[in-house]
């Protein structure tokens, strides 16, 4: 509840600051950039509260997948590999956001002392309060510092959660490859492809594909709007921050650019790695020696191949695919928006 209150106060400050600073180019731009985090905060709260059922369903779907194939030692090793990867990423992601938030506050304090002016870490202030007075400045600075601390926790939690869910998706796709490899090994040593064992192995492959597709659809329902909010708000924030930096040195703008660019890069990179994994597994499925099966079972395996050729791709509400190509397109759009702002300012 405290997190919701902090986000609500932050949103009120963001909207009111756009009006307060509408006559000041630099302060208005700073407030507009800061509004991007307000949008993200609202979306994260919405996902947390409005997608509770889907989040629970996502958890149980991933759990069911692991339970179904826990008998396979190679599958267990695969998921342990991704678990270790997530354990390695957790302190790295947390330290990045923590250091960024700490530097944002520290640089503001140092510059305030150096220039003997009342600077704030973010470009928003409380309405109906004189932000130039000592009391108003102290209240705004304290409130924004608290907001940054909670923001670090919230952004880390949501981003790390998405990273873990995508790591599980990679483990599921890798399971399909492992099961197909097991089928090939069995067929090479047992030509009796009409056995119940072969039927069971094919059924396991089909089941793994169905569970993975269901998991990815639920994942899209949970995080689709979250990914879209990050991409749109971050692109606008980066373009405006770069525009201000061209006209005047802005240390806090550099920090904002670093944080928002990390967010876009992270979600696009995670989606890109997943699709690379899918394409690799698709090739491995095609290399399965399914020609050793009976004609009836060969037709069944053709359906498996076709299913791998039409995976559920990670996206932002089906509007934008999350991959490396999207990251490049985002950079192009940011550049175009920046050029538009520069032309308008002439």
TrEMBL record:
Cellular-component GO terms for this entry: plasma membrane
Mind listing the GO biological process terms from this record?
A: signal transduction
Q: Which domain of life is it from?
A: Eukaryota
Q: Where are the transmembrane segments?
A: 28-49, 92-115, 135-157, 223-247, 253-276
Q: How does it sit in the membrane?
A: Multi-pass membrane protein
One Pfam family this chain carries?
7tm_6
Know the name of this protein? Odorant receptor
Organism (species) = Phlebotomus papatasi
């Amino acid at each position: 509840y405290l997190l919701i209150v902090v986000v609500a106060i932050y949103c009120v400050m963001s909207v009111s600051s756009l009006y307060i600073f509408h006559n000041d180019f630099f302060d208005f731009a700073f407030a507009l950039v800061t509004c991007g985090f307000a949008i993200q905060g609202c979306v994260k709260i919405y996902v947390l509260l409005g997608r509770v059922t889907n989040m629970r369903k996502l958890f149980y779907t991933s759990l069911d997948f692991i339970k179904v194939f826990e008998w396979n030692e190679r599958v267990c090793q695969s998921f342990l590999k991704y678990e270790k990867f997530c354990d390695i990423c957790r302190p790295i992601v947390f330290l990045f956001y923590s250091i960024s938030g700490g530097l944002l506050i520290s640089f503001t304090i140092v510059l305030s002392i150096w220039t003997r002016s009342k600077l704030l870490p973010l470009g928003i202030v409380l309405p109906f309060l004189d932000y130039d007075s000592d009391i108003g400045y102290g209240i705004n600075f304290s409130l924004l510092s608290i907001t940054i601390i909670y923001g670090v926790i919230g952004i880390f939690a949501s981003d790390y959660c998405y990273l873990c869910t995508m790591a599980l998706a990679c483990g599921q796709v890798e399971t399909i490859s492992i099961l197909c490899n097991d089928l090939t090994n069995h067929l090479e040593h047992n030509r009796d492809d009409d056995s119940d064992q072969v039927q069971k192995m094919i059924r396991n492959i089909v089941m793994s594909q169905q569970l993975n597709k269901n998991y990815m659809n639920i994942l899209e329902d949970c995080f689709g709007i979250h990914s879209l909010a990050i991409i749109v708000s971050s692109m606008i924030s980066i373009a405006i921050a770069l525009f201000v930096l061209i006209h005047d040195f802005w240390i806090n703008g550099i920090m904002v650019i670093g944080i928002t660019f990390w967010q876009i890069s992270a979600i696009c990179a995670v989606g890109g790695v997943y699709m690379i994994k899918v394409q690799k597994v698709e090739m491995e499925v095609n290399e399965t020696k399914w020609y050793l099966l009976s004609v009836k079972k060969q037709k069944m395996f053709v359906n498996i191949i076709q299913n791998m050729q039409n995976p559920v791709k990670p996206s932002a509400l089906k509007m934008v695919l999350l991959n490396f190509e999207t990251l490049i397109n985002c950079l192009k759009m940011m550049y175009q928006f920046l050029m538009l702002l520069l032309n308008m300012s002439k």
